[in-house]
TrEMBL record:
GO molecular function: transaminase activity
SUPFAM superfamilies named among the record's database cross-references: PLP-dependent transferases (SSF53383)
Family, per entry: Belongs to the threonine aldolase family.
Required co-factors: pyridoxal 5'-phosphate
One family name in Pfam for this protein: Beta_elim_lyase
Identification of the protein by name: Aminotransferase class I/II-fold pyridoxal phosphate-dependent enzyme
Location of the Aromatic amino acid beta-eliminating lyase/threonine aldolase domain: 31-288
Keywords (A to Z) from UniProt: Aminotransferase, Pyridoxal phosphate, Transferase
Tree of life domain: Bacteria
């Protein structure tokens, strides 16, 4: 069975496993207050021009939940695309904190200034929640990415309306590889963002970067209250020690995108056009249900939407995907057409 189901099916990249073994006989302070965690935070800070706070958390959902609930007062709400991870795949985590998610129809998975501006018109008095934070993901849930100009426009607008802009970076590695943006570009054009390790070669972990001064105070209290403050915080730090050595974080994203591009080229050659533009490592295609059934015998993938006679499936590449896997998949797809 070859997996194209997600980008976190493997334990970790060998370089990170080597570091885990290297540090296995070292004793650390707990809760992210150890020398290694401090050193890795300094490494990330060195890539950014603004003075930031950095926190390591175990995964994307807890990162989103803690940051958003910390940023919002009880009567404030978060704006998200209707494909946003916080709405579709987080089991009401945000709603469980008492905050409403205001959904906006997406433009290829993205939010735009006009879409947000139109939504804000309906929230002008004390009888409704007050929009305060705009949530976007980069790469998006449809595999697209934001350009620097798009982020700049969003952030300028958010600042003009006294809104926070928060970037979910679960798949930031592939987004940066596709867009040519830097971590500093993200920092300059948001109030907070996180660097996704789980979906880019790490065993676990996300590195949350907070730039906004108003969001920094007492954030560790918020993490602890939500159950996200790891006693063994150094385990998460080790992940990013490895990812930011020898350009690994960026190389893994580039490789995942290259494998997706090969699949896309092969699919188009076979007459199959992905339903979203393929920019990063996610590919959505529609096949007959009988074809999907045959393909699922040898491959793992997500059935995204079921149309009865047809099904849309999602194929995801990762640092682990090889050209042999890609060519085998394309050959088997050709055989069922």
């Amino acid at each position: 069975m070859i997996s194209f189901k997600n980008d976190y099916s493997e334990i970790a990249h060998p370089s990170i496993l080597t570091l885990m073994q290297k540090h296995s006989q070292t004793q650390f302070n707990g809760y992210g207050l150890d020398a290694l965690s401090i050193s890795v935070k300094q490494t990330i800070q060195s890539m950014l021009q603004a003075n930031v706070d950095i926190h390591f958390l175990v995964g994307g959902t807890i990162t989103n939940k803690v940051l958003i609930s910390h940023a919002l007062r009880p009567y404030e709400a978060v704006i998200s695309a209707d494909t946003g991870h916080i709405f579709v795949h987080e089991t009401g985590a945000i709603e469980s904190t008492g905050h409403q998610i205001l959904l906006i129809p997406n433009a290829n998975g993205k939010l735009t200034v006009p879409l947000i501006e139109e939504t804000l018109k309906g929230f002008s008095d004390e009888h409704r929640v007050l929009p305060k934070l705009v949530y976007i993901s980069n790469a998006t849930e449809t595999g697209t990415f934001y350009t620097k100009a798009e982020l700049q426009a969003l952030y300028r607008f958010c600042q003009s309306r006294d809104l926070y802009l928060f970037i979910d970076g679960a798949r930031l590695g592939v987004a940066l590889a596709a867009s040519g943006l830097t971590l500093n570009d993200l920092c300059e054009n948001s109030d907070a963002f996180y660097i996704g390790g789980t979906k880019n070669g790490a065993m676990l972990g996300e590195a949350l970067v907070i730039k906004s001064e108003s969001l920094k105070p007492f954030f560790r209290h918020a993490i602890k209250q939500s159950g996200g403050l790891l006693a063994k915080g150094f385990v998460a730090a080790i992940q990013f020690e490895g990812l930011f050595q020898n350009n690994l974080f960026f190389d893994l994203g580039t490789h995942a995108n290259a494998m997706a591009a090969q699949i896309t080229s092969g699919l188009i050659h076979l007459g199959i056009i992905p339903i979203y533009p393929v920019s990063t490592n996610q590919i959505f295609i529609t096949l007959k249900k009988t074809q999907v059934d045959i393909l699922s015998k040898n491959y793992a993938f997500e059935i995204w939407t079921d149309h009865g006679f047809e099904q849309t499936i999602r194929l995801v590449t990762s640092w682990f995907t090889t050209e042999t896997m890609v060519q085998t998949l394309l050959k088997d797809i050709e055989s069922i057409l």
